[in-house]
Amino acid sequence: MKSTEKNIGQQFWQLLKLTQKMEPKILIYHFLAAFAQLLSPYLDFLFLGLFLNQLAHSSDQIFSLLILYLVVRAVAMIGFRYFSKLATDSRTRLHYRFDSAAAEKMLKIRFADLNDPKIRQAYQTAIDGETFTGGIDTFFNTGITQMFSFIISLIFALSTIIVLVSQHTNQTTALANFSNSIWFYLLILVLLIAPGLTAWHSVKRSNQIQQDMITKVAGNNRKFGYFARFFDQYQHGRLTRLYHLQPLLMKIADFNLYDTQDTFYHSQLKMYRHSAIPEILANLFMGGLYLLVGIKVIVGAIALSYVVTAVGYLHQFLSATSDLVREIGYYINMIHYLQYYVDFLNMPDDQTAGTLPVEKRDDNDFELQFQDVSFKYPDSDVWVLRHVNLTLNVGERLAIVGKNGSGKTTLIKLLTRLFTPTEGVITLNGIDIQKYDLTEYRSLLGVVFQDFKLFAYSLAENISANQEFDESRVWQSLDIADVKKRVYEMPAKINTPLTHNLDANGIEISGGEAQKMAIARAWYKDAPIIILDEPTAALDPISEYEIYQRFDELIGNKTAIYISHRMSSTQFSQRIIVMDQGQLIQDGTHQALMQQDGLYRELFNAQAQYYTEDKITAERKTADDTFAIS
Ligand SMILES: Nc1ncnc2c1ncn2[C@@H]1O[C@H](COP(=O)(O)OP(=O)(O)OP(=O)(O)O)[C@@H](O)[C@H]1O
């Protein structure tokens, strides 16, 4: 359900649930802070009543009462400072969590949706909505705090009413009878509720006046903007001079200016008038409450000293009500805008897909199968893969070759669940891969894509993709990727930060070295299925050959998929598949495919002639010029 389809109560509830999840004590801290803040005036009213009582009867305990008052007041003040600090800290944490949750959500959004303008718009609206309303921080600091002040003052007001209701008089005068009657209490209730209602009416009217004013002023601004753009443009200079347009233009400008001022003046006047009426009424209602409490004193139901306390409590309630009512429109707006953020966080993502655990197997017996898989990219009508049937046997070395755009990378994107097949299924040990828990499923795959990225963190963090790492495994991975010696020479070895982006001591590495690090990262993951999608483009053929050879020696019973335009990689593969225009057109060993009159032999022979000594040296020289660090 979108934010606009939910009522304000549902939106408020959802927002509270989310904030409670992120910062469980935030509400209680704000309640205690609001309570401690309100306690001071309430203590004043209470103790003033007690002092008057003392003065009216015996004043022997007045000194101890004074001490008690000072102590309790000090405790309330300390409590207020303490809880305010806790509330402020929790707001700061919540604000941070809101920001990071949005970023985290963006990271979890299904890869296939990442480029969708609707998703980007939802993210932008969520962020704008947060900023526009002053954010979740302001929501708690003003909205929730004011709501709690209202609730607390309501509780105190109710306690006063309970006292008034419970204190009857035995007198039988007309006034005494009235003070004991239901009408008396109903009148109190009306006098307590009425100011809120009149204030609400006035707020609605004021908002309307403001809206009308904005609409009218916007029209004038548009006309004035046209005038401003007109008179200062060179090409209009001749026209205004030859036709003596200055007086006309100035008249239009003056009219707009005066009209705008007039609109402001009258709107302000109307708003004052509308806010003055409820203020006058509030004072009248307050006077009425004083009178009713006074009647209770006159008829002897309550002590004179209690008047101060009762009137003080009721007065606090009335001002908390009008404060809340005045701002309620703003808070409703705030909840509405924050709902865009909640909606964004509730969007379906990677993590909501698939729940089945992946069986842990020491023998790495994981069989992957493409069953009649066809695929079109979202918002595209072109079939990129067509009826692909392929079984990846356990422990197999498989090379995928084919011309540019034949669908090799797309095949891997489907295998890694970055996209879902449009038709057909991919299975892992007989079960559709979409049904598995995504994190568990992806832990089976160590992938290096062509457009791999390294980050401006330490080398070890880049390799382990974690802040904690196994040092010896990092070194082993660097060795496999043929970059151990280079890292050994670095100032902080595996703790050396990459680039100067975040650290002045960071180092820059070549494109070829970066590719080797990305390969080391895939090795470190220790996944049972390793996929290298042309990770060696920036490497010279000899380095590429050495890396593949080491991989081949150490890979054991893991399954490996190599995609490379250099046909040399196919020598390490027991099986080669050839793709053309999204279809799997050949499948077999190097020898078998070389005997066929097909694309494989054509590609292989076309490349063989380039692999002369001279070409290899030239390639080595240009290999290091691309960088892939962000
Ligand atoms: N995100 C995308 N949206 C739409 N079409 C895409 C997208 N990515 C790739 N394609 C198209 O899908 C087809 C197959 O691309 P793919 O990257 O799988 O080919 P490839 O065989 O890996 O090519 P190369 O050897 O150049 O890396 C190409 O025609 C490409 O333009």
Describe the protein in words.
With 630 residues, this protein is an alpha/beta fold. The protein has three domains: 1-167 and 304-350, no CATH class; 171-301; 368-625, 3-Layer(aba) Sandwich (Rossmann fold), CATH 3.40.50. Helix content is 62%, strand content 9%. It is built from 20 helices and ten strands. A six-stranded mixed β-sheet has the order 6-7-8-3-9-10, with helices on both faces. A four-stranded antiparallel β-sheet has the order 2-1-4-5, with helices on one face. A hairpin with a 2-residue loop joins strand 9 and strand 10 (583-588). Helix 2 runs antiparallel to helix 3 and helix 2 (26-56) runs parallel beside helix 5. The radius of gyration is 38 Å and the shape is elongated. Mean pLDDT is 82; it is low at 618-630. Residues 368-606 form the ABC transporter domain. It is a multi-pass membrane protein. InterPro entries: AAA+_ATPase, ABC1_TM_dom, ABC1_TM_sf, ABC_transporter-like_ATP-bd, ABC_transporter-like_CS, P-loop_NTPase, Type_1_exporter. It comes from Lapidilactobacillus mulanensis. The chain crosses the membrane at residues 26-50, 62-83, 147-167, 182-203, 280-308.
